Amino acid sequence: MLTDFWTWIMDLGNSKTVALLIFFTTFIGIVLYVYSSRKRSERLESYRYMPLMDEDDADRKVKAAEASQAKGEK
């Protein structure tokens, strides 16, 4: 039984399909994780322009996001 499954997976056409299903479900899982919580979504959105900010401005935004997250958890 297991050897039949292994030979089926080793077939090049089937392994591509299995890999596609694994990566697609992983991608959907990550997207659901990121956007499932409103607080998490807002926190990640606050990091959007971080590469374009000055260092002081970025530090202030990160501290504000962490403070709002800590306040929401308590």
Structural class category:
mainly alpha
The DSSP helix count reads 4
- Quaternary structure state of the chains depicted: single chain
Average of the residue pLDDT scores: 81
Low-confidence stretches: none
Total E-strand runs:
0
**Distance N to C terminus:** 51 Å
User: Rg to the nearest angstrom?
Assistant: 21 Å
Strand content: under 5%
The helix/strand order is HHHH
**Which of globular, elongated, flat, extended, rod-shaped describes the shape?**
elongated
What share of residues is helical? over 70%
Largest sheet: none
Word description of this protein:
The model has no long low-confidence stretch (mean pLDDT 81). The chain has helices at residues 2-10, 12-36, 38-46, 55-73. By secondary structure, the protein is an all-alpha fold. Helix content is 84%, strand content 0%. The chain is built from four helices and no strands.
Secondary-structure map with pairings?
Layout: H1 2-10, H2 12-36, H3 38-46, H4 55-73
Helix pairs in contact: 3-4
